[in-house]
Design a protein that fits this description.
The complex is a heterodimer of chains A (180) and B (346).
Chain A (H helix, E strand, L loop, with lengths): L17 H4 L2 H16 L22 E3 L14 H5 L5 E7 L12 E9 L8 H5 L5 E3 L14 E2 L1 H4 L22
Antiparallel strand pairs in A: 1-4, 2-3, 3-5
Chain B lengths: L2 H36 L15 H11 L10 H17 L10 E3 L2 E3 L9 H22 L3 H32 L4 H7 L6 H4 L1 H14 L11 H4 L9 H26 L13 H27 L7 H31 L7
Antiparallel strand pairs in B: 1-2
The chains are: A alpha+beta (180), B mainly alpha (346).
C-alpha cells in the first residue's frame, strides 16, 4: 500500500561507503543547513511587546457586561453556573432595592459572582447559556499569580467599568437581549 | 633589570587578562545568540539593547548563588579544581604573539608576554596540565557522574593530544622553529600553512575541538547522560569558573589555530603599512581570525550531535593518529627532497 505522505524510507544497515565513512561531507551538509537557518526570519513573537493576532472568537478572560446606560446585565439566573462543565461559577442572587435602578437592569441581580479561573476551561458554554447577554469571553488573557486564592475572580474583576467598557463587538451578537 | 620592560609586560599581561575574560564572557552571549539563530529563535534580548548586558547579569547571578560543597567531597581539591582549570586556560595566552611591534613612549613594545624559543612545547605542557582541573574537580566531588565525566575527559584529552602533537610537529618541521613568533613570521606574504597542510589543519582543528571539550566531543560534560559531568556538584562561581575556563580555552585554541595555520597576525597587503598602523591592523587581523574560528567552533557545536564514546576513541586512535602520521611522513620526505638530503643516495 502506498503511504499517505510518500515520505516513507526503508531503513537499512548496509555498510557505509567510503564517502559516508569520511563523515565530513555529511557534516558540511549539516553546517549548510544550520547556516541557512541562521539567516532566516525569526519565528518568535516577543510576547509582552508583540501579541499574536487573536481570532475574533478567541475565548479568554470573562467580562460581565453593562448595558448602554451602565446597568449590569446579569440577573443571577444561574444558567451559566449550571452550564459550566468545570463548575467554576458560583453566585448569590440579590433583589434590587428602590433607587438602585441605575445600577442593575432588572429586579434581580448578582450580589456575589465568582469565577474560579483555575477551574475554568474557557469552553464558552456560560456565554452560550446566558439569556441576558451578560457574560462574554474576551481576548484578554488571565494574568499569572503566585497564590491560588487570587485566581478566584469576584465582581470587582469581572464587571466592566463604566468609563472603560470592554469591546466585545468582535464576538457574535447573540440577539438574545430584549430591550426593556 | 629594566624597569620599563617590567611595567610594559605587566600592563600587557593585565590587558590580555582582561581581554581574555571579556571575550570569554561575551562568547557565552554570542553562543546563546548563535544557538538561537540556528534554531530560528531570538536568544537573550532582555538585558540591555539586544541583550548585550546578559553576561553581566549571568555573572551577578553566579556570584549570588549558594556556594555548595557536598558533605563527602574532598574539600580542598574541590576548591582547587576550578582554579586550576581557569589558571591553565589563561596562562596559555602568555606565548601568543598578538601583533607586530608597537612604538609607544619611545620604546619598541613586543605584543607578546614571553617569546619563548620553545613556545609550542610550553603550549602542549599547559594543555596536558589543563586536564588536571577537570580530573581533580570530578574526583573531589565524590559523585559517580562527576567521576565518569572526569575519566572521559582525561582519556579523551590524552587520545587527542597525540594526533594534535603530531600535526603540530608537521608545522614545526615546515617552519623549522618551536617559537610561535618564528612560525608566524614564516607565514608572511600569504604563505599560510593551511594552503600547504590542509589535512594537518583538519586534524588539528578536530583535536582542538576535543581538547576544549566542545560538542561534538563534549562527552566529559554531556548534560543528558552525565548531568553536567565533572561539574555536576559545582555551584556558584566555582561552576562559573569551569564554564569560563572552557570559553577561555576556546578563545586561546582559536588563537593557536590562527597562529599555526592562518598566519597569525599576517594579512594580505601588510607590506604597505609600517609602524603603529601596521601593529594595530595586525592586531585587528589576528582577532578577526580568532573570531572566525570561535564562530566555526560554535557553528559546529549547534550542528552536529555528540559522538558515542567508542566512536570518539575510534576516531582518535584509528583515524586521526594514522592520518597525522602519514601526513608527517610525507611532509618529511618532501622537505628532505627539497633540501637535497637524498642527492647522495640517488
Amino acid at each position: 500500500m502506498e503511504s499517505l505522505t510518500n515520505r516513507k524510507k526503508v531503513v537499512s544497515d548496509k555498510p557505509m561507503t567510503f564517502m559516508e565513512e569520511l563523515y565530513l561531507p555529511a557534516i558540511f551538509h549539516g553546517m549548510k543547513v544550520t547556516f541557512k537557518h541562521m539567516l532566516q526570519k525569526r519565528k518568535t513573537i516577543k510576547y509582552p511587546e508583540e501579541t499574536r493576532v487573536f481570532a475574533p472568537v478567541y475565548r479568554g478572560m470573562h467580562v460581565l457586561k453593562r448595558d448602554e446606560k451602565g446597568r449590569e446585565n446579569c440577573t443571577a439566573c444561574g444558567l451559566c453556573a449550571v452550564a459550566c462543565p468545570a463548575e467554576a461559577i458560583t453566585m448569590i442572587a440579590g433583589e434590587r432595592k428602590k433607587g438602585e435602578e441605575n445600577l442593575y437592569r432588572e429586579e434581580k441581580y448578582a450580589e456575589m459572582y465568582e469565577i474560579n479561573m483555575l477551574r475554568c476551561i474557557f469552553c464558552g458554554l456560560c456565554e452560550e447559556a446566558c439569556p441576558k447577554e451578560a457574560i462574554f469571553l474576551t481576548d484578554r488573557i488571565v494574568p499569572t499569580e503566585f497564590d491560588r486564592e487570587n485566581f478566584i475572580y469576584g465582581k470587582d474583576k469581572l464587571v466592566e467599568s463604566i468609563e472603560f467598557p470592554i469591546d466585545i463587538t468582535k464576538r457574535q451578537d447573540t440577539g438574545k437581549r430584549t430591550e426593556k | 633589570m629594566d624597569t620599563g620592560l617590567l611595567i610594559e609586560k605587566s600592563v600587557l599581561v593585565l590587558i590580555i587578562f582582561t581581554i581574555s575574560l571579556g571575550i570569554a564572557a561575551y562568547q557565552t552571549y554570542f553562543e546563546r545568540k548563535l544557538a538561537a539563530w540556528i534554531q530560528d529563535r531570538v536568544g537573550p534580548d532582555r538585558a540591555g539593547p539586544f541583550g548585550i548586558l546578559q553576561p553581566i547579569a549571568d555573572g551577578v547571578k553566579m556570584f549570588l548563588k549558594e556556594d555548595f560543597i557536598p558533605k563527602d567531597a574532598d574539600k580542598w581539591l574541590f576548591i582547587i579544581g576550578p582554579g586550576i582549570a581557569m589558571f591553565t586556560s589563561l596562562i596559555t595566552s602568555a606565548i601568543i604573539p598578538w601583533g607586530t611591534d608597537l612604538e609607544l613612549f619611545g620604546r619598541t613594545i613586543t605584543l607578546q608576554v614571553a617569546d619563548f624559543d620553545i613556545g609550542i612545547l610550553y603550549l602542549f605542557a599547559v594543555l596536558s596540565i589543563s586536564v588536571y582541573g577537570i580530573m581533580i574537580g570530578g574526583w573531589a566531588s565524590n559523585n559517580k557522574y562527576s567521576l565518569y565525566g572526569a575519566i572521559r575527559a582525561s582519556s579523551q584529552m590524552i587520545s587527542y593530544e597525540l594526533a594534535m602533537g603530531i600535526s603540530a610537529i608537521t608545522i614545526i618541521m615546515l617552519s623549522g622553529s618551536l617559537s610561535l613568533t618564528d612560525i608566524v613570521n614564516k607565514q608572511h606574504g600569504m604563505n599560510w600553512n593551511i594552503f600547504y597542510q590542509p589535512i594537518c589543519f583538519v586534524v588539528f582543528f578536530i583535536c582542538s575541538m576535543a581538547e576544549t571539550n566542545r560538542a561534538p566531543f563534549d562527552l566529559p560534560e554531556c548534560e543528558n547522560e552525565l548531568i553536567g559531568g565533572y561539574h555536576t556538584e559545582y555551584s556558584s562561581m566555582k561552576l562559573g569558573l569551569y564554564l569560563f575556563s572552557e570559553y577561555t580555552a576556546m578563545f586561546i585554541s582559536s588563537a593557536i589555530i590562527a597562529i599555526l595555520f592562518l598566519g597569525g597576525y599576517n594579512f594580505p597587503g601588510m607590506d604597505n603599512f609600517s609602524g603603529n598602523t601596521l601593529a594595530i591592523l595586525s592586531i585587528v587581523a589576528f582577532f578577526s581570525k580568532i573570531f572566525l574560528f570561535i564562530f566555526i567552533f560554535m557553528w559546529i557545536r549547534w550542528t552536529i550531535p555528540r559522538f558515542r564514546f567508542d566512536q570518539l576513541m575510534h576516531l582518535g586512535w584509528k583515524v586521526l593518529i594514522p592520518i597525522a602520521m602519514v601526513n608527517l611522513l610525507i611532509t618529511g620526505i618532501v622537505i628532505a627532497i627539497k633540501e637535497g638530503w637524498f642527492n647522495e643516495l640517488m
